[in-house]
Design brief:
Elements: H1 2-14, E1 16-23, E2 30-34, E3 39-42, H2 48-57, E4 65-69, H3 75-78, H4 81-87, E5 92-94, H5 96-101, E6 111-113, E7 120-122, E8 125-131, E9 140-146, E10 149-154, H6 162-168, E11 173-177, H7 182-187, H8 192-199, H9 207-217, E12 224-228, H10 237-244, E13 254-257, E14 267-270
Parallel strand pairs: 3-4, 4-5, 5-6, 10-11, 11-12, 12-13
Antiparallel strand pairs: 1-2, 1-14, 2-3, 7-8, 8-9, 9-10
The structure holds zinc ion (2 copies).
The site of one zinc ion (ZN) has 5 residues, from loops.
Length: about 270
């Protein structure tokens, strides 16, 4: 009886897909997703201690995390990886290019290489990596599919390709980069070469570009969009939200902006 009750509880939990952006921005990115049976962290750009602390403040269980996925080798996506894995041994999934470019990860006990466009199963979740245009060795975004549906994550990309649009189609929840306001970037304090890099095709998306991507992805099943990787120098949450909102064409889609300094609420999608 006891086992039966547990299974039933697990079934019910398995119907809810939870997503929490633990922190996002140029100083560190980390995101938690779980269907109640399998839990993943995507990127480890906060310190291990801060990642665990933020999970706890949202009532999420670090001890239940099954695997870590890394999008690319930039410091704001992996600086906490080694210590996190030391705190809780778990496999780390990344592309071969990211692995080669991140010697700090070469001593991890369990590295699993992912190939773009080849879905892989982690517990009850199906994960698929897709290529993004960014100045790293082999950067990717991810889609993650559970019984309750699919979510898509794309946080470091300088331009939107057909492949990105194709992979992000049909998601119930999207985490999309809205890095900068072009006016703030041009008038801001960054040196010219850095402005060029950020605005370039292998840099980061501007609010309007994110809006246009979103417009191409609108469908009746889309429930929530979380804007991420906002620059603290070249954007504000208000500008990002105001720049993207018109592209939702009045549809009842939740729109939120993830912050650098605190975790988002836990967004829950039920079956
Ligand atoms: Zn990056
Ligand atoms: Zn980044």
């Amino acid at each position: 009886m006891e086992a039966g009750r547990k299974a039933e509880a697990a079934d019910n939990e398995g119907e809810t897909f939870s997503v929490c952006v633990l922190g996002s921005g140029s100083r560190g990115n980390a995101l938690f997703v779980s269907d109640g049976r399998t839990s993943l962290l995507i990127d480890a750009g906060l310190s291990a201690r801060e990642t665990i602390r933020r999970l706890e403040t949202r009532g999420l269980d670090f001890a239940g995390v099954d695997a870590l996925l890394i999008t690319h080798e930039h410091r704001d996506h992996l600086q906490g990886a080694e210590r996190l894995v030391r705190r809780r041994r778990m496999p780390v999934y990344l592309t071969a290019g990211t692995w080669k470019a991140a010697p700090g990860l070469h001593d991890l006990p369990e590295v699993m290489l992912v190939a773009c466009g080849v879905p892989l199963r982690i517990g009850t979740l199906t994960v698929e990596a897709f290529s993004v245009s960014h100045d790293a060795c082999e950067p990717v975004g991810f889609t993650i599919t559970a019984a309750a549906g699919r979510i898509g994550i794309a946080t470091d990309l300088g331009s939107v390709t057909d492949s990105v649009r194709e992979h992000l189609r049909g998601c119930r929840l999207l985490v999309l980069e809205a890095n900068h306001d072009p006016g703030m970037l041009q008038e801001g304090p960054y040196p010219a070469f850095l402005k060029q890099r950020i605005a370039g095709a292998r840099g980061h998306l501007a609010n309007g570009e994110t809006g246009r991507l979103l417009a191409a992805l609108l469908h009746p099943g889309l429930e929530q969009v979380i804007l991420a990787h906002l620059s603290e120098t070249n954007n504000t949450p208000e500008r990002a939200l105001a720049g993207v909102a018109p592209f939702l064409e009045g549809l009842p889609v939740g729109l939120a902006a993830a912050r650098q300094e605190k975790p988002s609420p836990v967004f829950r999608l039920s079956a």
